[in-house]
Write a structure and sequence with these properties.
By secondary structure, the chain is α+β, with helices and mostly antiparallel strands. Helix content is 29%, strand content 26%. It starts with 23 loop residues before the first helix and ends with a helix. Bound molecules: FE2/S2 (inorganic) cluster and fe (ii) ion. Residues 197, 203, 208, 326, 330 line the site of fe (ii) ion.
């Protein structure tokens, strides 16, 4: 037996086992224990600036709708009709005008969620419109971003974001405006595979020539109260990579940032799958949302403070070009890993001593779902028993 397939008593130096990256029952455990009680970012308030503007969010069978009211308030509802459960709104974003009308039987709702009109209302006995408003959804706003939660969880949103609260203020997240609309696309990998890749430090020099030439050896990892923080310096000097050289040459002074942040690229990852990429010139968020055991949605949006300087516009464009290459390089790598995790031979791999973010994520998953510590896939019956227990706990 190879050492990689032996049960490992101390799992701290090991990746999560491969079976957790392609198992539908494990994904159901993740849904109940990790995703349902978590806060999920839906959009920035500036994405829904006008009354009637909405943004939708779908996650593991749940559907949210965040909507700007006539009174300017942002509200969140389940994107499901209280009549017979039709999805109310399609697409990622849009403006519904003064009211939301369900496409099935044309019940219509005000922007505050109240039921306004019901065709054929005489069909129903003792019908009280007040009882059939849209289902409200827990939501909160911090740093200008709107978050929702489908099930009560332990932390308030402020507690969840506390490790990055200072940075959100420093970079003025709340005052930012969207550079592009929020978008979603499918990645053919388990969500954890994409998350692992995001904080994997040892692949940067091997697999990302552009990024590597920008940040050289400055990559520094930290885990702060459960949030991964990665710092890299865009630096100065000559680079053979044209976009990197141009970015370095053009990136202007950003007056509200302190000197030590003028050329820092910072990456934050919050459990389970929310990332903020924070640059001097712009920020973006990324989410990896499970779709199936072997696929996920990559959802992202980019934001910046208004700044008409030509060199800032150019720096933003160059930043996006450097990162587009990084994303395509990573896409190939994570698909390659997902393939390998489906083979019969591989069970789990060792994590480098300094890979503190990879270690912390694996550890958090093992704490949240203890059966994730088992190197080999448990039987279907055992997994089902754990699932029954955790769904019972959640109820
Ligand atoms: S399901 Fe929406 S009006 Fe009937
Ligand atoms: Fe990467």
């Amino acid at each position: 037996m190879n050492v990689m397939t032996k049960p490992v008593a101390d799992q701290s130096g090991w990746s999560l086992p491969a079976w957790t990256y392609n198992d539908a029952q494990f994904m159901a455990l993740e849904r109940a224990n990790v995703f349902m009680p978590a806060w999920h970012l839906v959009c920035h308030v500036a994405d829904i600036a006008k009354p009637g503007d909405y943004q939708t969010f779908a996650m593991m069978g749940e559907r949210a709708l965040v909507l700007r009211g006539r009174d300017g308030q942002v509200r969140a509802f389940h994107n499901v009709c209280p009549h017979r459960a039709a999805r109310l709104v399609d697409g990622d974003t849009g403006n519904c005008g003064g009211r939301l009308t369900c496409p099935y039987h044309a019940w219509s709702f005000g922007l505050d969620g109240q039921l306004l009109s019901v065709p054929f209302i005489e069909e129903y006995d003792n019908f009280d419109k007040a009882e059939f408003g849209l289902f409200p959804l827990e939501h909160a706003i911090s740093g200008g971003f709107v978050y929702v939660r489908f099930q009560a969880g332990a932390d308030s949103l402020d507690q969840y974001l506390a490790p990055i609260a200072e940075e959100m203020g420093l970079y003025r997240f709340a005052e930012m405006e969207p550079l592009v609309p929020v978008r979603s696309r499918v990645r053919q990998v388990n969500w954890k595979n994409a998350c692992d890749n995001y904080v994997d430090a040892l692949h940067i020099r091997v697999a990302h020539p552009g990024l590597s030439s920008l940040v050289r050896d400055s990559y520094r990892l930290e885990v702060d109260r459960g949030v991964d923080k990665i710092y890299a310096e865009a630096g100065s000097g000559k680079s053979a990579h044209r976009s990197v050289q141009a970015y370095r040459d053009l990136l202007p002074q950003v007056d509200h940032l302190p000197p030590e942040r003028q050329r820092t690229w910072t990456y934050y990852r919050l459990f389970p799958g929310l990332m903020f990429d924070v640059y001097p010139d712009q920020i973006d968020f990324m989410q990896f949302i499970p779709l199936t055991a072997t696929s996920c949605i990559l959802r992202d949006g980019a934001y910046a403070l208004p700044d008409g300087r030509r060199e800032m516009q150019a720096a933003r464009y160059l930043n996006q070009r450097i990162n587009r290459d990084v994303n395509m390089e990573d896409k190939g790598l994570i698909e390659r890993v997902q393939d390998g995790m489906g083979t019969s031979r591989f069970a789990q791999g060792p994590l480098g001593r300094n890979e503190i973010c990879l270690r912390s994520f694996a550890q958090r998953m093992r704490q949240t779902i203890p059966i994730a510590a088992e190197p080999q896939r448990p039987s279907h019956e055992r997994l089902q028993a754990v699932l029954d227990e955790s769904c019972g706990d959640a109820a």
